[in-house]
Amino acid sequence: MIDTQIKKLIEAEKKRQKNVINLIASENYVSKDVLGALGSILTDKYGEGYPGRRYYRGTKVVDEVESLAQERALQLFGLADKSPSSEARGNSISSNWSVNVQPLSGSPANFAVYAALVPQGEKIMGMELTHGGHLTHGQKVSMTGKFWNSILYTVSKENELIDYEAVKKLAIAEKPNIIVAGFTAYAHIVDFKKFREIADASGALLMVDMSHFAGLVAGKVYPSPFEYADIVTTTTHKTLRGPRSAMIFTKIDERELNKKIDKVIIPGLQGGPHFNCIAAVAVAMKEANTPAFRKYALQVVKNAKAMADELAKLGWRVVEGGTESHLLRIDTWRDGKGIGGREAADKLEAQGIIVNENTIPFDTRKPMDPSGLRLGSAPETTRGKKEKDFRAIARKIDKVLRSN
Ligand code: DSN
After folding, report:
1. pTM value?
2. Domains and CATH numbers, the chain
3. Tens-place pLDDT, residues 294-322
4. Which of 20, 199, 310, 313 is the most buried if burial means most Cβ atoms within 10 Å?
5. Which residues does a 6 A CB cutoff place in the pocket of ligand 1?
6. Active site residues
7. What is the distance between the alpha carbons of residues 59 and 48, in angstroms, rounded to a whole number?
8. Sign of the dihedral defined by the CA atoms of residues 123, 125, 126, 130, in that order
């Protein structure tokens, strides 16, 4: 690389990554093949539109790249119809689901779904941020809470888990156009069947944002939302271990939701697709469709459970009482008897453990300095760590947080 300043910074970041224990629940480490696709000359090509329907010429190759990414994404989540009849029809793949692989990241993907399906000013319903929801699930500081009237549900005060009856009551009273299930900090398995019933009872569409647990769904260690959802959005870089990108899966039926969403992505919201990134997504989807990845996903969950268990044994209050996924939250503030999440995260960083401060349900502190920490197991599991390593990490966290 001729640019020595950037070269040095990349080397410095490489060194930093190597020397820390990374517990950021939304990060991971991609393969050399994913990096190779990302750093390829595919970045040089423009191609607004979709395969076979572009505003640019010279798109024969990138059409194939995008179609392959779509095929592999559908295959990965069991949405491809491999029946002889579909092959006889000459389709390389046929499915009741369509997938748009062009969203640049998770937030624009979610925004595009609402923009396509919910008239401005009407209602979207998602989980409150401090309880585990995402900004783009309708929080007031997000454009999704400004352009649409957002209704936010919370977890139960008793056990910090989703109270499906309370969500149902709220949905029936508010009649939102769309309900979002899927979170950035909720550690337990979501009951998608119950969310379907709630959506049906209130006349709403059901969107699942599986950004955090997509890799666990791919690895078959977390229930698939596809049987119940109308739309599924996901980023590709968290547990799914791909590049920074996103996808929108949409059920194909007479409502033509997929066509509306495709039209919002381009020409409505974005310009040219990032083909280098789409190629990297295709690589990641192939990697995730292997026995090795399924083993990885299982280990991710085992490791998070081991870390939660050890922290609880050491006297930490694990939010929701534990985890069934790749992440967990601990309460460091303990009603004023402990320290704030920001101070806790700073102390851990000084000792080489990277986490993020996080709100906990019914938090009395602000998101910039909340009451807890969020810990994830996906990146260190990619680096080969097992349960005993995560128990040792928990002990190190305990020691650092209890030190002066
Ligand atoms: N910032 C991501 C996370 O950490 O969960 C979500 O956008």
Report:
1. 0.95
2. 44-288 (3.40.640.10), 291-402 (3.90.1150.10)
3. 999 999 999 999 999 999 999 999 999 99
4. 199
5. 26, 106, 134, 184
6. 46, 48, 209, 235, 238, 244
7. 10
8. positive
